[in-house]
Design brief:
Structural class: alpha/beta
Order of helices and strands: HHEHEHEEHEEHHHEHHHE
Mean pLDDT: 90
Shape: elongated
Distance between the termini: 30 Å
Strand content: 15-25%
Length: 271
């Protein structure tokens, strides 16, 4: 069953504004894996593409790139970003793709595979990939995120982790599943040629307000907000206040560093 938790326009706008692309290193790992398999760079398909963060990264490397998502609101946001003429977005389910058999050179999924019916998705991936075609699954764990600002990083990370603990009762079981370095989906992939690369670290500098926007974009925050909007907003404002106080800052635009760890699963369909 495909989960539909990202269909609201407001949520899609948050996703576009505050979700950033996986680091370039992850994209490079994917392209290098494709090259190692001597695959042509003709058609790449990005599933659960959301607002197109990784879809746009692929566009310079392929003749054609298609991003699929079940949320038209997410796709509308994706289309507002200036992109490449070879990039299109379409409504579609990962388990039932409107693509011919053996037509795809690269199939990617970034931070979305936990929402899919995984056995059905893997069967569909096997159908649409060309012989020797490649699949790349990318995810990160919220529990690996670390905050840094001068000498108060540990305290800032603790504040962030306390916010997660308060939101956990509203966490979908599929998100809980995603905290496991994709070990389950890796085991399910039927292709013998596969590998899992863990602990790919990425650090960025963002305003504290953007960190709050990232938290607000989480499905568990949106679920909490639907249940108790006042308490959800209070959690967000209190978290920002505590972080700024620990930093000795007052402006929400003060820059903070965030580090997270990505995991990448790569697999190649037999020739």
């Amino acid at each position: 069953m495909t989960h539909q938790l990202f269909e609201g326009r407001d949520h899609a706008a948050l996703y576009q504004k505050y979700r950033y692309s996986p680091p370039g290193e992850v994209k490079d790992i994917i392209i290098q894996y494709l090259d190692k398999k001597e695959r042509p760079h003709v058609l790449a398909v990005d599933l659960g593409c959301g607002t197109g963060q990784i879809t746009r990264q692929l566009a310079p490397h392929f003749q054609e790139v298609v991003g699929f998502d079940i949320s038209e609101a997410q796709l509308e946001e994706a289309r507002t970003v200036a992109a490449y003429p070879n990039l299109t977005y379409r409504v579609g389910k990962a388990e039932d793709l409107p693509l011919p058999d053996g037509s795809v050179d690269l199939l990617t999924v970034a931070t979305a595979v936990h929402w899919f019916d995984q056995p059905k998705f893997l069967a569909e991936a096997g159908r649409v990939l060309k012989p020797g075609g490649c699949m790349a699954l990318v995810d990160f764990k919220l529990s690996t995120m670390r905050l840094h600002y001068h000498n108060c990083g540990d305290k800032l990370t603790n504040i962030y982790e306390e916010a997660i603990e308060q939101l956990k009762p509203h966490m979908n079981s599929r998100v809980i599943q995603s905290e496991g370095d994709m070990e389950d989906i890796y085991t399910l992939i039927p292709f013998p040629d596969k590998e899992r690369i863990q602990a790919i670290k990425a650090t960025i500098s963002i305003p504290v307000s953007s960190l709050m926007g990232f938290i607000e974009s989480w499905s568990m925050f949106q679920t909490y907000k639907k249940t108790d909007a006042q308490s959800a907003e209070k959690l967000l404002s209190n978290t920002q206040k505590r972080i700024l106080e620990e930093m000795g800052a007052t402006a929400p635009e003060t820059q903070i560093q965030e580090t997270r760890e990505y995991c990448c699963v790569l697999a190649s369909k037999p020739q």
